[in-house]
Each structure stands twice: as C-alpha cells, then as structure tokens.
Design a protein that fits this description.
Layout (H helix, E strand, L loop, with lengths): L1 H7 L14 E5 L11 H10 L5 H4 L14 E5 H4 L17 H9 L14 H15 L5
Antiparallel strand pairs: 1-2
Organism: Paenibacillus oleatilyticus
Protein name: HNH endonuclease
Length: about 140
C-alpha cells in the first residue's frame, strides 16, 4: 500500500540521488524493532523528519504500524544496503551514521565526503579537497 502510494504521488526515486532504478523502500525506524516502538513517539518523529510531507498531511491520523507511509524512504540499492564491502565501506543507510548518510544528499556538488565503491576514506577526502581547490577564487 505505501509503496503504491509513493509511486502514485511521484516519490518513487532515490531520496539521496534521484535514481529511478534498483529502488527499495526503507523503514526509517527498522522493521525489526516494530514490537518495541511507541507509535505516538514515532508519529512525532515522522512529523519532524517529514521528507515527503505525509507527516503534515496525516497529522491527525495515528500511526498504527511500522509500515505507515510516514516511516518510509525510497532509496536505490547503493543508498539502501550500500555499494560494497570493499575498502571505504558503504554508501548505504544501514552502514553509515545518519549524519554521514545524509551528507550524500546535502553536500555541494563534488563535495560528497562518503567513499564511493572501491574508494578509501583518504581518497574520498582527497577528491573533496581537489574539488574545493578548483572552486577557490583566484586572488592574484
């Protein structure tokens, strides 16, 4: 039901990179914790982290299940489970702290500090430094 609604409402692309292939629906609060969730707290959280506007739209509707559309985020394979287990780790939400994961969406173009497939952390930071050098104005 939630997946169909996300498609109908035009949200069926990766939240991070906008890809439209290899898509998966991620639970913001993981399915494995469904029996531990205080649904009123989940509703409040989803109203604060309202990425698609459903928190505002459904504000007067209680959340009764972890599968509620307000608890969903569409991600491509790379941003859901990650690109690989090689050097540099992964780009997926299951493998990164939330702040690092969100930098993939929020970083200026060319400044994504998260190592991509096969890239070490040091290589990623060098890529960012090189990009920043190109952006610096010439004061000479």
């Amino acid at each position: 039901m939630a997946k169909r609604r996300l498609k109908e409402d035009g949200h069926f692309c990766c939240y991070i990179c906008s890809r439209t292939d290899e898509l998966q629906v991620h639970h913001l609060i993981y399915y494995m914790f469904a029996n531990l969730v205080d649904f009123e707290k989940l509703k409040e959280f989803c109203e604060q982290v309202d990425i698609y506007g459903y928190g505002r739209l459904l504000k007067h509707t209680p959340i009764m299940t972890i599968d509620d559309i307000r608890n969903m985020m569409v991600l491509c394979q790379d941003h859901h489970t990650g690109t690989s287990d090689e050097i540099g780790g992964s780009t997926g939400i299951h493998n990164l702290p939330l702040g690092e994961f969100m930098m993939q969406k929020l970083a200026r173009p060319g400044c994504n500090p998260i190592p991509q497939d096969g890239e070490s952390f040091e290589e990623a930071m060098e890529r960012v430094r090189q990009h920043q050098k190109r952006e610096e104005p010439d004061n000479g």
